[in-house]
Write a structure and sequence with these properties.
The complex is a heterodimer. Chain A is an all-beta fold. In chain A, 0% of the residues lie in helices and 56% in strands. Classes of the chains: A mainly beta, B mainly beta.
Amino acid sequence: ETGVTQTPRHLVMGMTNKKSLKCEQHLGHNAMYWYKQSAKKPLELMFVYNFKEQTENNSVPSRFSPECPNSSHLFLHLHTLQPEDSALYLCASSQELGQRGTEAFFGQGTRLTVV
Amino acid sequence: SQQGEEDPQALSIQEGENATMNCSYKTSINNLQWYRQNSGRGLVHLILIRSNEREKHSGRLRVTLDTSKKSSSLLITASRAADTASYFCATDGYAGGTSYGKLTFGQGTILTVHP
């Protein structure tokens, strides 16, 4: 148990569906991240939030829409996805950006399959 | 762009043997971190080494960092079957201060330890 909880753990959705991934952390951290992990590829940083403000959008398509209502919660809203978006989506948190040497704590991930 | 690259991509050893994994990176870093991932699950932080450190130990783990060669190694001594997992290095970049905490991962080394 890392203190970062992601729901759902598994999600199958059609290309016309709208769904949301949820991440919650109980560590008092102020930075939260979405990563995408596809087979045979390195983890890709998607979005970064620091104190609820988005600080990075790593050229992610607009069919992925993040939301960070407070420092403890992070959402990833999904709509009109493509089969190639199937992957493990990982949420992580750390103390805050600008702090040297902060480790990241990861959730267990949501295994997303787009059919 | 991919920062860390692990070598080898896969490593198979017997219980009790030592396992060494290497990581190379391209740009200046603030720190380098190693993570472990069990199949299809979230990543777990193992150890962090700062750019001004050369070696660090944690239990059966030993990490070295050579900033002149932009490389790091992770040694797991007296391996156990439970060490079977994927191991990733991640670099925490250095770009004016606000990059701290935004980790860039390599593709990982898949370690299999046979009982």
